[in-house]
Design goal:
Largest sheet: 5 strands, parallel
Strand order of the largest sheet: 2-3-4-1-5
Number of strands: 5
Order of helices and strands: HHHHHHEHEHHEHEHHEH
Mean pLDDT: 86
Strand content: 5-15%
Low-confidence stretches: 12-23
CATH superfamily of the largest domain: P-loop containing nucleotide triphosphate hydrolases
Helix content: 40-55%
Distance between the termini: 83 Å
Length: 273
């Protein structure tokens, strides 16, 4: 029989003395703050109390302290990145109505949500008539990208064209700091609602050409590929050049279904009758 307090106790990490939960707590908090561990400093009193209550050893206490710091840093990174991305809020894969749009394959969206296509710097085109969920899916994948550590920039086409027109005279190599050039994923929404001018088509080509194999583009459009020459100022040459780069290593989602907005209108009218 092993005497109490010998062999088994030697294998066990030393427990934190009860009085350590109060002694010099302020000093410990100050030291953690100086190290830049603000979340650990904030969590320290509660973790010390738990350590004494559950008789945790010092390694377990430190593990919990650093785990809390890392988790809260990641939460802050995601919040900040989402705010800077310009992504609208409230639209995720979790609240996309796959039952209403059976043409959208859940398995394909789940594969895209792994962000493997972003690691390979591939593109994504989401095509379909207005209101079928193209924007919702693009935003949802943008959120997944942020959560996975990628930088994201979301633009309505009109906003993007405005920004590019302002930079029209600047060489692309001097635009590396612009969000639409440097983000790992640039999402361009509502392509096709307005016809491009020739200048805009050239600027769009410049963007696509610069980002080709440097970063990913996700474009939503209500226009089928065959209608892009008309959309791009009627210029078949520049359209071919744009599509050649876009469609190389690109995923394409074609959504054919009813409009969410029309469904909501119908439900509203039926409810009011």
């Amino acid at each position: 029989m092993t005497p109490k307090g010998t062999a088994h106790d030697l294998d066990r990490p030393p427990a934190l003395p009860a009085k350590a939960t109060t002694a010099d707590l302020g000093t410990l908090v100050d030291q953690l703050m100086k190290l830049g561990l603000e979340f650990a400093a904030d969590a320290l009193p509660a973790i010390l109390t738990r350590a004494v209550k559950e008789d945790l050893g010092s390694p377990a206490l430190l593990e919990q302290l650093f785990k809390d710091e890392l988790e809260r840093r990641e939460e802050r990174r995601v919040r900040t990145s989402l705010r800077l991305s310009g992504l609208p809020t409230g639209q995720t894969l979790a609240n996309f109505d796959f039952a209403f749009q059976p043409a959208v394959q859940r398995s394909k969206l789940e594969a895209l949500a792994t962000c493997a296509w972003l690691r390979e710097k591939q593109g994504l085109l989401i095509l379909g008539p207005p209101g079928v969920g193209e924007t919702h899916l693009a935003i949802s994948l943008g959120v997944k990208a942020v959560e996975s550590g990628f930088s994201v920039a979301f633009f309505r086409l009109e906003e993007l064209l405005h920004a590019m027109r302002k930079d029209a005279e600047v060489p692309p190599t001097r635009l590396k700091g612009k969000k639409y050039m440097k983000a790992a994923l640039v999402i361009i929404d509502e392509v096709g609602f307005e016809t491009f001018t020739r200048e805009e088509a050239n600027l769009f080509f410049r963007l696509v050409s610069y980002r080709y194999q440097r970063g990913s583009l996700c474009i939503t459009s209500n226009k089928a590929i065959k209608d892009w020459p008309e959309m791009l100022a009627g210029d078949e040459v520049i359209t071919a050049a744009i599509l050649d780069r876009l469609l190389h290593s690109c995923h394409v989602l074609n959504i054919r279904g009813r409009s969410y907005r029309l469904r909501e209108l119908e439900e509203s009218l039926n409810g009011g009758s």
